[in-house]
Amino acid sequence: MRVLGIETSCDECSAAVVVDSSVILSNVIATQIELHRPYQGVVPEIASRLHTEWIAQVVRSAIRQAGLGVEDIDAVAVTNRPGLLGSLLVGVNFAQAFAAARNIPLVGIDHIRAHLYASQIEHPLEYPYLGVLISGGHTIICKVNSYDDIDVLGTTIDDAIGEAFDKVAKHYKLGYPGGVVIDRLAKQGDPYAFLFTEPVLQKGSHPYDVSYSGLKTAVINQLEQFRNKNAPITAENIAASFQRVAVGLLVKRVRKALEDTGLKRLAAGGGVAANTLVRKELTAIEGIEIAFPSMKLCTDNGAMIAALGYQYLRDKNYDGYALNVSARVAAFKRSYP
User: Fold this and answer.
1) Is 189 helix (H, G, I), strand (E, B) or coil?
2) Which residues lie across from 132 on neighbouring strands?
């Protein structure tokens, strides 16, 4: 089955053609980074307007790069939740028209589930496994029982890890996107120049939940308080020290979840899964099989949408052409070992 995947949940306009969930024939990603850079963040109105201008060309390029014609597409999968409403509507409306004109199946895809599935395209793991979704909008630790059966063990109680990266980078004018810049600067910095402490959750909190708001505030507003002796205040040292604690907090929760659940397989997804220290620290966990998506599959992309879409389509789980969008995260089961 040749599935066209369309992703426009935020500021990436992407389309891909994937065969049977595993063979990527094309994966076109038109990024808007340069156009949002002056604002140090995504401007929703600009994002949706650019999606409107680009979507037809991006889909056309994806089909052409796959060596196919429009008539060769068997089904369409499109992100319909969560995300920026204006951006989601552009992708879903285009997908509806494309599928209806060809009289082929259409399925709406949850962006979060797609990120958790992304590593399965290239490095399939046997279910169940521990999934870690780390991005600008989400931080989730979960037990993945199947492509559509996920038990959330822990999540952020405030800022997502990627959001904290972006806000620290914005405050210190390090550049945009923040996560990429901090990762690069941290390689030249001293991770112990500033001794930031890990946030302590309130008594009774779920054991796998994380919090990044306090750490972000400390890095932005209390830098001198945490400086280690006379360590120089440089962008590299700030980045390295902040990243050490942010990633360490996450890895500590992941280790506990693996120990408590007894799971021996781990998959990470989302933009922060491309972070150098995240990959190093998670790979260092002994006794588990681990899978990361390739770098191009960490960011928002149509290939992960098409690949996950195939799983629903294979099980005859279609949506009608009246598919709607939602900015909110769909409800997930909360579960604890």
Assistant:
1) coil
2) 141, 268
CATH 3.40.50.300 fits 2-115+297-334, yes or no: no
Tokens of 311: 């799983």
* Same fold yes or no, 2-115+297-334 and 126-291: yes
Beta bridge partners of 77: 5, 107
In degrees, rounded to 5, the angle at the alpha carbon of residue 6 between the alpha carbons of residues 279 and 145 is: 50
Structure tokens at 201: 């959750």
- What residues contact 282, with CB distance under 8 A and at least 6 apart? 132, 251, 254, 266, 268, 290, 292
Cα distances (angstroms) measured from residue 319 to each of 55, 56, 89, 302 = 21, 22, 16, 18
pLDDT at 202: 75
The two three-digit tokens of residue 43, written as one number? 């401007």
Encoded tokens for 138: 């989400």
Burial class of residue 126, CB neighbours in 10 A (0-12, 13-18, 19+): exposed
User: Do residues 4 and 75 make contact, with C-beta atoms less than 8 angstroms apart?
Assistant: yes
| Per-position DSSP letters for 42-106, written without gaps between them | --HHHHHHHHHHHHHHHHHHHHHHTT--GGG--EEEEEEESS-HHHHHHHHHHHHHHHHHHT--E
Domain boundaries, the chain: 2-115+297-334, 126-291
Residue 255 φ/ψ, nearest 5 degrees: -60, -40
pLDDT in tens, the chain (337 residues): 999 999 999 999 999 999 998 899 999 999 998 899 898 889 999 999 999 999 999 999 999 999 999 999 999 999 999 999 999 999 999 999 999 999 999 999 999 999 999 999 999 999 999 999 999 888 999 999 999 999 999 999 999 999 999 999 999 999 988 999 999 999 999 999 999 998 888 776 789 999 999 999 999 999 999 999 989 999 999 999 999 999 999 999 999 999 999 999 999 999 999 999 999 999 999 999 999 999 999 999 999 999 999 999 999 988 889 899 998 877 677 776 6
- Given CATH 3.30.420.40, say whether it is the number of domain 126-291: yes
Contact present, 151 and 143 (Cβ < 8 Å): yes
